[in-house]
Amino acid sequence: MVFAQCPVAHRLQKKKGLSSLTPVAKQDGYRLEWSDDFSGPKLDAGNWYHRYPGVRHDGFNDSTTVSVSNGNLLINVYSDTIGGIVTHHTGMIATKREFLYGKFEIKAAFVNQSGSWSAF
């Protein structure tokens, strides 16, 4: 599961019941090629990498905003103002695997706030 963490993330998690989601059922005609249940203490560097660290568009991609907790991937989205300039901080990760086609599924809660650019 994936969560975007911000001041309202915990309310979203409780409201949508995301902490108790069940795994996706196996479907005929498909076989599982890869998955990550985020069961370790941190992001598995064997499966993931941080994309475009540093300034990107009007934000800042920071690897410290990405963490793993209780089987969830958390991406902390926040903004700060220094010298009158607002900077939006977030994290961007990608799998080290490449897929040409298939069916992709994710269970996620995205937060709609200034500076966030949620994508899957």
Provide structural commentary.
By secondary structure, the protein is mainly β. The protein has one helix spanning 9-16, and strands at residues 2-5, 48-50, 54-56, 59-61, 66-69, 72-76, 78-82, 85-90, 93-95, 108-109. A four-stranded mixed beta sheet has the order 5-6-1-10, covered by helices on one side. Strand 7 (78-82) and strand 8 (85-90) form a beta hairpin. The longest helix is centred in the N-terminal third of the chain and has 8 residues, at 9-16. The radius of gyration is 16 Å and the shape is elongated. Mean pLDDT is 75; it is low at 1-17.
Low-confidence stretches: 1-17
Assembly category = single chain
Major sheet: order of its strands? 5-6-1-10
Q: Which range does the strand content fall in?
A: 25-35%
Task: Spell the H/E element sequence.
Answer: EHEEEEEEEEE
Helix proportion of residues, in percent? under 10%
Distance between the termini: 12 Å
- How many β strands by DSSP? 10
Number of helices: 1
Q: Helices and strands: which structural class?
A: mainly beta
Sheet with the most strands?
4 strands, mixed
Shape summary = elongated
- Averaged pLDDT, please? 75
Cα radius of gyration in angstroms: 16 Å
State the gist of this model.
With 120 residues, the protein is mainly β.
Fold blueprint:
Layout: E1 2-5, H1 9-16, E2 48-50, E3 54-56, E4 59-61, E5 66-69, E6 72-76, E7 78-82, E8 85-90, E9 93-95, E10 108-109
Question: Any key phrases for this structure?
Answer:
single chain; 120 residues; mainly beta; four-stranded mixed beta sheet; 10 strands; disordered N terminus
